[in-house]
Each structure stands twice: as C-alpha cells, then as structure tokens.
Amino acid sequence: MRSPAARSADYAGTVSSTPSRTARLLRPSTLEPVEIDLRLVFGIGMALWSVALVVMVVVHASGTTTGRSIPVCATGIALGALGVLWEQRRRRRS
Q: Among 24, 45, 47, 69, which is least packed, fewest CB within 10 Å?
C-alpha cells in the first residue's frame, strides 16, 4: 500500500475536471424543502407522552418507582402543546 504522500505526488501538477469532494459537499443543495404538517408530529408525540404518563401513574401507585417520571411525562405533554401552538401561529403567518 502506498503512503498518502506518494499518492498525492502522482497527482501533482494534474488538473482534475471534476470538482473536489470538499467542493461538492459545500455546494448549495438543489433539493426543495419538504413541507410537513408539524401539528401531526407534535400530536403523535403528545399522545405517546400521555400513554407514558398513564403507565407511570399506575407504576407510581404500585409504589415501585419514584415520582420523578410523572413530571417528566407532563413536561413532554406541555412542550408538545407549545409546539402545536407554535406551528399554528407559524401557519397563520405564512
């Protein structure tokens, strides 16, 4: 196997007609952004957090866990609700 220095010496003085890999990676994308309904995404997340909250309330009632998981689930639901409000506001403005 040749060393990197020996391989680069082979290409010294040659001009490549294709752009370098770095240039290709840094080139702006020609893809259009995909428009999705974030209300659905946030709604699914809130539903999952709600299921987790019910499960953790049952587990907490049996006394096998600390109460820390319940506020975590409630926070997930609250952040999802804020996300839905943000998405509705964003849709009204555009």
A: 24
